[in-house]
Amino acid sequence: MTKRDGLGSQSASRAQPPLISKTPSLNSKFLPQGSGGMIAGKTSALLGAGGPPSRVEALTQNPKPVVPAATPIPAEKPLAPATVSNSSKPLAPAAISNLAVLQRKTLSLLEEYFSVRILDEALQCVEELKAPTYHPEVVKEAINLALEKIPPCVEPVIKLVEFLVNKNVLTSVDIGTGCLLYGSMLDDIGIDLPKAPTNFGEILGKLALAKVLDFKVVTQILKKVEDDMFRTAIFGSAKKSIASSPSGQEYLVTQETEVQACESLLS
């Protein structure tokens, strides 16, 4: 064999491919689930997971906060028509009926009081009404009925009102509102009862002196009365009944502003 032939055989042996071939790569999609733990001698990032490794690595490197799904807000239910209408329809007849009952009982107890003049009995009857919001009407009806009597029951009605206040049944607000209610009717009442404005003024003066009525109410009443003669009679009688008391002059001094306001309404 020549040297050239030896060189040719060596180059041919070098060009011959190796006998051991490379391990063929396996496609992961043909592997059974859970067998992706070892691929080409490398450990998977998530053992036993069937998901692609690239997704797992991305979650591991840059974890994103998990945003919970927004809870849907239930739509507000409209009010049932019955809920709205119940407050207006059936209450009106019951309220009218109850008012009529209260008025009848009030007139009955007042008639009984002016007949027998028993304060404790009148107190019990007023308490049995169980209607504090109706107390101003009780005061108005008491004054109205007292001044309709012949002779007028001025002193008895004053004693009744003061007694009910001392027993914590009536308040000064009840008395003031009741007097205003009566004063608003005086233009009509005074036509049939000419002495009613004078007698009403006496009641106002004595209740104010007893400190169960704010003297400002007298000013408000004069503003409601349209007849000039009635206004003059009310204020003159109220001031006279106060001045006739030993402590009356001192009281009028403390109420000087309101007294002047009343006098300005007479001019």
Outline the structure in words.
Helices cover 63% and strands 1% of the residues. The protein is an all-alpha fold and 267 residues long. The protein has a domain at 107-266: Serine Threonine Protein Phosphatase 5, Tetratricopeptide repeat, CATH 1.25.40.180. A two-stranded antiparallel ribbon has the order 1-2. A hairpin with a 2-residue loop joins strand 1 and strand 2 (42-43). The protein is globular, with a radius of gyration of 51 Å. Mean pLDDT is 79; it is low at 1-60 and 76-91.
How are strands sequenced across the largest beta sheet? Answer: 1-2
Q: Estimate the mean pLDDT confidence.
A: 79
Oligomer: single chain
> What is the succession of H and E elements?
HEEHHHHHHHHHHHHH
Distance between the termini: 160 Å
Evaluate the radius of gyration.
Answer: 51 Å
Instruction: Classify the fold: give the CATH topology of the domain at 107-266.
Output: Serine Threonine Protein Phosphatase 5, Tetratricopeptide repeat
CATH uppermost class of the domain at 107-266: Mainly Alpha
Low-confidence stretches: 1-60, 76-91
Percent helix range: 55-70%
CATH architecture grouping of the domain at 107-266: Alpha Horseshoe
State the major sheet: 2 strands, antiparallel
The total count of strands amounts to 2
Coarse shape: globular
Count of alpha and pi helical runs:
14
Structural class: mainly alpha
Beta fraction of the residues? under 5%
